[in-house]
Amino acid sequence: MSWDPKDSIKKPVKGVYFYPDPHWTDEAIRGMVEGIHTFDIVAIWVVNSIGVKGGIGSQYIIAIRDNVASHSCTVKVLNVTPYVFAPSVVFNNDFVSVKVNGEEWRYYEGNTVYLPSRKGIYRVETIAKGKRAPHILRTQAFVKEARWDSNTLTIDIENPPWYNYKMPFYMVGIGVEGYSVESVSNGGEIIPFDKLRLKNKVDLEKMTKTGVVLKLKNGKAKVRFKDEKNLSRLLK
Fold first, then answer.
1. Of 43, 58, 226, 234, which shows the fewest CB atoms inside 10 Å?
2. How far apart are CA 153 and CA 172, in angstroms?
3. 230 located within any domain
């Protein structure tokens, strides 16, 4: 079996072991792939690589380009599914902020970066130094924009591609990082934690310190914060 360099691989190639569970997509592979014959690779996309791997549920819907660095990688979203609320990648190294395709992207939790639920190629860059700021933690909505500017988190959401009807609102979990919410535009609301079904009082106290849940309509909302950490330092 052989390929012309102009050909394209659309799915994993069985019987060839280069990385664990490899996905080769949309890139030419030259040479022979028969038995244990050697071959040249023009470009390779993999599920897991050194320093970054596919997030939970994303192993079969994304592929990671082999040009991975400690704080960056290129990801191809091959498919979207209602079983995974957003494609994701997990970095080994910690970070405080993220850019996707060169744009501010505040949609992550811990070392996991969530990507748009749309097929395409995304260049993910994490920044290790700087001040932490509020960001989206989790939502079932399709996130189009998640940008931090001064004291405002701009969030633009819409229905996921698999929804055929318009949802009246979505719950959006926010990591506050020492800030508190002052206001929410576009008819957004803050949902008190005592209205949620939490397991115990410990969960309630932990979530109250680290996050907030917003009820947002489709479209763009601006969430304005105040920096409680800086305020407490000024008052001392």
1. 234
2. 12
3. yes
Q: Where are the alpha helices (DSSP H) in the chain?
A: 201-210, 228-235
- Is residue 202, in this structure, part of any structural domain at all? yes
What distance in Å separates the CA atoms of residue 75 and residue 64, rounded to the nearest whole number?
5
**Residues, the chain:** 236
108, 51 Cβ separation under 8 angstroms: no
Does residue 84 sit in helix, strand or coil?
Answer: coil
How large is the average pLDDT for residues 39-53? 55
pLDDT digits (tens, 9 = 90+) for 161-187: 888 887 889 999 999 988 999 999 999
Most confident among 21-35, 52-66, 200-214 (mean pLDDT):
52-66
- Half-sphere exposure of residue 212: CA atoms within 13 angstroms, side-chain side: 21
Instruction: Give mean pLDDT, residues 143-148.
Output: 96
As given in the structure block, the two tokens for residue 88 are: 């994701």
Dihedrals φ, ψ of 37, to 5°?
Answer: -65, 145
- Whether residue 210 lies inside any domain: the answer is yes
**Residues 6+ positions from 230 with CB-CB distance below 8 Å:** none
HEC secondary structure over 176-206: CCCEEEEEECCCCEEECHHHCCCCCHHHHHH
More confident site: 202 or 92: 92
Check: pTM over 0.70? Answer yes or no.
Answer: yes
Contact assessment for residue 214 and residue 191, using Cβ atoms and an 8 Å cutoff: yes
pLDDT for the residue numbered 197: 66
Domain residue limits at 236: 131-236
The answer on pLDDT for 123 being more than 90 is: yes
Query: Among residues 123, 122, 126, which one has the least CA distance to residue 108?
Result: 126
Domain-embedded: residue 158: yes
